[in-house]
Write the structure tokens for this entry.
Amino acid sequence: MAFWYTVAFRMAAVLPVWLKRVIAGLIAWGYFAFNVTQRRGVFANLRIMRPEMSQRQLSRLALRTFAQAGMNLLDFFGIPSTSDARIESMIVNFADMRALLDERSDGRPFCLVAAHYGHWELAGAMLGLGGYRTHAIALSQSSGVVERLYESLRMRFGMTAHDVRFGLRDLLRHLPEGEVPAIVSDRDYTGSGEEVEFFGKPVLFPRGAALLSFRRKLVGIPGFLVRQPDGRFLLEFGRPINPEASDERSWVRAFVMDFAQQYEAIVDQDPTQFLNFFDFWSTAT
């Protein structure tokens, strides 16, 4: 794994753009054709999000979903060899980011609530280039070499990654003043998440961002980096989440439900950027 990651980063640095796009397309086709488990997961999700579509229409959307993931890989492996100015130019409204966040948060401390939609890895780089020091919760890599590659990228953009096993505990204990937690909040790894309606069917969403926001007195701001037809990205922020409930249990549930509703509206615009390659609704109890 470490060898192939190293090769991918080096190839992304030297190959022409057209050839990298061809390779990304071939990878997408390969996964679509041969990774039966992931293909079944994507089809299962699309049938819920687009129940009115025929099998042929769903197949087109499924292939586009794999293509989106291939393009994300292309962008990710190109980040180390891409200048800050070039990364900023990939975001259509990068110059408006701080103003948008200030407006949504009303100047208060906030937690950015993200999801496996669009390009969440590039969003981390974008926040760093915008002057924010951020904290994320992430799965650790099995290879020390790969983990160091990720760590070098995070250091460049001022991000601290906390292990998924105890990251929430760390942030609850200590979040430096002025720094921003950016929590990907659509996969419940513990089986103890909040069951909410998503596209009309129950599914578990994690409580971590909500719990952190309640205890640290943060405003939740949904944020998604959405790929546009020209290959660039539009940063979309949702309405602030700050429930009126006084007790923690009710507040957390209201927070998760609000995020799920806003997330559903984003996904409904383009389900091919919903990059969960498993049966997303299988987590429901």
Observations:
- The mean pLDDT is 91.
- The longest helix spans residues 55-78.
- The beta strands are 110-114, 134-138, 159-163, 180-184, 194-198, 201-205, 219-227, 233-237.
